[in-house]
Amino acid sequence: MKTKNSVAFHTLGCKLNYAETSTLSRMMESEGFEKRNFDDVADIYVINTCSVTDNADKECRQIVRRIHKKAPESIVVVTGCYAQLKPEEIAEITGVDIVLGAAEKFNIAQHISDYTKGDSTKICSCDTDDIEGFHSSFSANDRTRTFLKVQDGCDYNCTYCTIPMARGKSRSDSIANVVKNVEELASKGVKEIVLTGVNLGDFGKGNDGAGLSIGLNQREENFYQLIQTLDNVKSIERYRISSIEPNLLSDNIISFVANSKKFMPHFHIPLQSGSNEILKLMKRRYLRELYIEKVELIKKLIPHCCIGVDVIVGFPGETEEHFNETLKFLHSLDISYLHVFTYSERSNTEAVNITPVVPIQIRHQRNKTLRNLSFMKMQYFTKQHQGQTRKVLLESADKRGMTEGYTDNYIRITTPFRKEWENSIIDWKL
User: Fold this and answer.
1) Which of 120, 191, 232, 252 is deepest in the core (most CB within 10 A)?
2) pTM higher than 0.85, yes or no?
3) Are 96 and 138 within one domain?
4) Residues 75 and 197 in one domain
């Protein structure tokens, strides 16, 4: 076989996965590997998987089969959440050579160097309780906007979710190390950083980012302190908070963002259901009344703020009445857009034992209804700001003579590409 010197990556799932893939790519390039596009033939293929839905699992299997058909002599490495949850299942897929769980993901170069094509499939996984340490990661493919991982894992026990089993306990970087990463990104020309994690508002637990395990009480750092510190880093112009649980979105955080020139007026707040009965079945840590309070405070302090919402439809036990309750609730909220997820059964979660099960067809119908609502909400939000002048960060990408950008409050604009606007923040009349 040829020297194992070229590698291609494919990422499934969330922005956290994209940040980690980007870091893995840089690590392997520093080890002498040549990065290739995933559609090209490479010596090594790395698939960083998601396992939030059954579709993500299926997509991983399809990608492996496609690689095996195109490049049967190449080494295929599967890592990420699916690899942590079901390593044996992945190892049985024809074409998979190495399966790396959460604890071994960042040792990928060593595992590849120790492997010879034709050996039996190598599985390196561990129990979730053994997943320790925090690995800083950031995406670096685009100078315009970078996703910076500051937290990992989750201590919540939502009945539908496999993330705690896939990523382990909540742990995070230190504020000092986050600042160091931010300054490094600024030196590369990055204008906007999106703070990313599994449960971002839980920042402060776990690891100090340098290999030492530190408990929350010893660390005495929290997310509010993090954003206060980052606001004083002069070299970065814009920050966004990727997503934060309503019960962890304190009034202090909202007030701080309202008065900050660097933290953008944009919150993404998971709701999952507008029915308190369903929220209790999900074991969410709030009721709809708290959610209303948070949205109302945001809009009182930041009237132009963009608010995004996560919702799950078709959760077991969700009757037509429950869904209509959610629909009516979302109609009433002053929000800007929805991310709608169709419930997908995940093994080893409590929700698979909850009845009655909502038929797949009805789940899809409910998804479509909420996606239509999301479209109307975003149209209305955008129309409210017509005629205003807002700050827009224009991307570096030249897409067929066009480029895109986002206002501070996350309204997307498209305009003919101009070199002098590349990766620039300009005043833009909507």
Assistant:
1) 191
2) yes
3) no
4) no
